[in-house]
C-alpha cells in the first residue's frame, strides 16, 4: 500500500464514530482459538473477516467456521474474504479437524459458513453435511447453524440444481438455516456481485417449503446508501418468505479496494429498526452497529 493510501485509510479509521470502537476481547481467549485453528489449518470467518465481536463470541463458546478454504469464487464488493478463480482443493479431513476444534474449545453453538465454491459440482453442499455429521459424532450436545451461499452456479445450473443443494443441507436438520441478503434490492448488483436479491429470498423460501420447522435467518449490512424505506421493504420481503430471524449491522470498509461507507447509522437508528423488525413478526432480532450474522447466535429473545 502506498503512503498516500495508508494516510487515507488511517484518516477514515480516525473518522469512524465512537460507537464503532470497542475492545477486541481478552488476548488469552483470542490466542487460544487462533492457536487451535492454526494448528489444524482450518479457518473461521471470525478471523478471516476480522469480526469486532470475536472475543465476546469466543467467551460465550460460539464460533463460526469458514469451510472449503479462505478463497471465494465470488467478488462481493464489501467482503474481506480473499477472492480468486483458483480456490484451494477441498480438504477431506476438514470435517474431522473442525469437529476436534469444537470439542477442544467446548463450543455449545457452532455456525458453519463457507466461501462460494462455484467450481464444485454441488457447490459444497455435501461438505457442509459431512462437517455437520462429524461435529455431532464428537459433540452430540452442540447445536449447529448453517450460513450458506446461494448454491447457484457450476454443474446443474438453475432452480432445480439449487433446490437439490438446499435440500441436502435441510435434510441434515441444522438448528437454523441462515442466508444473508446483505443489502436492499436497489444496491444488490454493486454490493453483491454475482448474487441476485430475489434468488436469495428464494433460498429462504425453499428452506421453509422443505421443512417449516427449521428457523430461517438473514442479515442486512447498512451503510451502502440505502434509505429507511428500502430497509423496511427488505424486511417485509424477508417476512413474506417466512424468515424468522434477522440481524442488522453497520458496514465498515475493510480496505480502500472495497466500497466506501456512505453513512454510519447511529445506535438509536439501529434500535428503531430493530423495534420495527419485531413488530413485523421476526422472532429473533439483533440490530446494532457491531452486529454480525453470528452475533449472539443460538440465543432466544
Write a concise synopsis of the structure shown.
This protein is α/β, with parallel strands linked by helices and 301 residues long. It has eleven helices and nine strands.
Structure description:
The structure is a single chain. The mean pLDDT is 85. α6 (125-138) packs parallel to α7. By secondary structure, the protein is α/β, with parallel strands linked by helices. Helices cover 39% and strands 14% of the residues. The protein is globular and about 45 Å long. The strands form two sheets. Strands 1-4-5-6-7-8-9 form a seven-stranded parallel β-sheet. The longest helix is centred in the middle third of the chain and has 14 residues, at 125-138. It has a single domain (23-287), classed as TIM Barrel, CATH 3.20.20. α6 links the parallel β4 and β5. The protein is built from eleven helices and nine strands.
Please tell me the CATH architecture by its name.
Alpha-Beta Barrel
The parts where pLDDT drops under 50 for at least 5 residues are none
Straight-line distance between termini: 44 Å
State mean pLDDT (0 to 100 scale).
85
> Judging from the principal axes of the Cα atoms, what is the shape?
globular
**Would you tell me the structural class of the helices and strands?**
alpha/beta
Strand content is: 5-15%
What's the helical proportion of residues?
25-40%
Radius of gyration: 18 Å
Count of strand segments: 9
> What is the ordering of alpha helices and beta strands?
HHHHEEEHEHEHEHHEHEHE
Count the DSSP helices.
Answer: 11
CATH homology group: Aldolase class I
Q: What name does the CATH topology carry?
A: TIM Barrel
Task: List the domain count as a whole number.
Answer: 1
The CATH class designation is Alpha Beta
Query: Strand order across the biggest sheet?
Result: 1-4-5-6-7-8-9
Report the biggest beta sheet as strand number plus sense, adding barrel if it closes: 7 strands, parallel
